[in-house]
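The step that takes the researchers longest sounds almost clerical: writing a folded protein down as plain text. The outcome of that step, for a single protein, is printed below.
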Amino acid sequence: MKILIIGCGYVGLPLGQVLASAGHEVHGIRRSDFTAENITPHRIDITAPNALDALPRDFDWIINTASSARGDAEVHRAVFVDGAKNLLDWLGDSSARMLFTSSTSVYQQTDGDWVDETSTANSKGGTAQNLAQAEELFLNAPQAATVLRVAGIYGPQRGYLFRQFLKGEAVLTKGGRRWINMIHRDDVVGAILAAMDLEPSIYNVADDEPVTQRAFFEWLAKRLDKPMPPEGESVSRKRVATNKRVRNTKLKAAGWQLRVPTFREGYEKLIREE
C-alpha cells in the first residue's frame, strides 16, 4: 500500500518505520526537514492552504498524527481544524482511507466515572473543542475515516507528570483525586496498525489501568525513594481539567493487544533507562 503520514514525529515516525519494514510505500509530512530510513520525506505545513497540492493523491491511506508541538491555542486550532479542512480539500473525491489520532480530552466528564466511545464528547472549550471539530470533519468526509481517541502519551523522552516529578516541580492538585489515563507510544503505534484492519469507527486508545494522580506519585516516590509532591495548583495547560476513566474494551475486543498494559511496566523501563 501507499501510505501518507501527516505529522511524522513522536508517533508518526516509528509508525512509518514499522509500515515501511512491512513492505509498504511510506511518505511522511513534517513542518521541518527530516530524514528517516525507508520513508519519503516532505516538508509541508498543513495549516497553509494548498500546501499539499505538490503531492499526488493516489494514497491508499492517509494517517494524521499531527500535533501542535506545545503551541498556543491559535496554533492548536490551525493544526487540527484548519489542517483537517486543508487535507480534505486536497483529497477531493479520493478513495483513500483516513485515520485521525484525536484525544480522550474530548470527554469532558469531571465526576471520575468510566467513559467509552458511546459517552458524550462534550467539548465546550479549550483544545478539546478543536479536536472535536476535527473529528467531525473527518467522520463526515466522503472518505471512510477512523478516529482514535488517544490517552496521555508517554515513552522515551516523554511523560509530562513523570518529568515534573523528576524536576521537583510536580504538585498534588485537589488531593490527587483526579484520574489519569495513559498509553505508551509503542501501544499507540500498535493501535493504529490494528485499526487499519478494522471497519471505520471511533476507538479509545488507553492502557488497562487508569490511576489517580496521588497513586501515580506514590508509586514514583516509592520506586525512586523521593518525597511526595506538595499540595498545590498546577500551572494551567492548554486543556480544560477533566476527571474520568477511559475504557479500552472496544479496540481490545477487536484484537488490539497491549505491549505495556499499565503505567508500572512502562515507567519501570523508563526509570531504568534514565
